[in-house]
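User: Show me a protein chain along with its predicted structure.
Assistant: Here is one chain, sequence first, then structure tokens.
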Amino acid sequence: MKKILLSIVLFGTTFFGVAQVGIGTTNPAASAELDISSTTKGVLLPRMTKVQIQAIANPTTGLLVYCLDCTPKMLFMFNGVEFIDMISGASINAAALAAIVLDATDTSVSSSPSLADLTALGVTGLTSPQTHYKLAIASSSPAPTTLAALQVIIDAVNTAFAAELADVATIVANSNTRADGTPSIAELAAMGATNLVVAQAYYEVAIAGASPAPTTLAALQTIIDAVNTESKDNTTVVVDVAGQNNTIWMDRNLGASQKATSSTDPASYGDLYQWGRRADGHQIIDSNITVGPIASGTEGDNFITSTSDWLSTSDDTLWQVAGTNDPCPTGYRVPTETELNNELATFKTDYAAGAIASLLKWPLAGYRKRADGVVENRGVAARYWSSTTTGGDAQRLLFNSGDAVMGVDNRAFGFSVRCIKK
């Protein structure tokens, strides 16, 4: 009995007094709460399948468990977010994470990984569009190999998307259908909008008039791209023909259904543009008329009558090389005065007869008067715009049966356009 009591006292002293336990040793290490010593046996921790491990309710950080069906079989520890293997630190969901990354980098399927895929993996806070997560995961370097790393990417996307929503809301709030100059091109670019190639006023009016109003950068970009498309005539068939000095031109006037078969071929006349305007509908010879001049961005699709410029404030950049309103098809532009003059030199002394005989087959397409929008001299005379400005006017090519010359005219006139390759 005395020996039993003594043993109890000694055990209590070791366990409760020193707060250390030794198994297989009477001298546990001072820094160890539990010291197990053996030369014939080991420690056996809980052994579970992967499904059982992931079903543990509210695992405590530091919890250890051995996975029986993982590849390879491994001891895992819960790090506060997920179970990671004790050797490489890889997630117990490494295979599923690799599949998520693979789906993200697959550009042929825009819908994967889905929000459901991410949720099933344990990701939380999925408040942004799926495509944003896909792009962020695909572009991350290094690729996420743990749930924690993936969650960091998700959280960063959410922060950026919240800022995007706020920026777009500001852009919409500042836009006005009367085009007062905000948002500026710089402001649109700063928030991520791209391909800003036409005048600011057109974007502002389009954004202000959009219904429903854009709430995301993607929706805003759709409006910008639509404005860009509307600025150009991409319906005229493009057939190349060689010009002077190794230049390449379209073989027909902008808006024409064919190249000219004669000087008076109606199908070759095409549209009549006011200088600096887009392919917005005003160029159609029977388009409606509005009395001008008017402010940029308010012209709509009407022909603007005026004694000089259709704009109340002239803008020389609209048709310059890389001009914001250039109506030529993608890859082409309005020619300069020099380029038109080079072609004129080939038929200058033969006038209209020489123009139709040249490789570019220039027809007598007439013009539209600035004061009342009336079309006249179809089949009698022709005037073709250049991109070059002179004071408040612009340079143009004029020819008829008795003359062929470069000169200047008011920008409110409606003239033909023949595009040259960039």
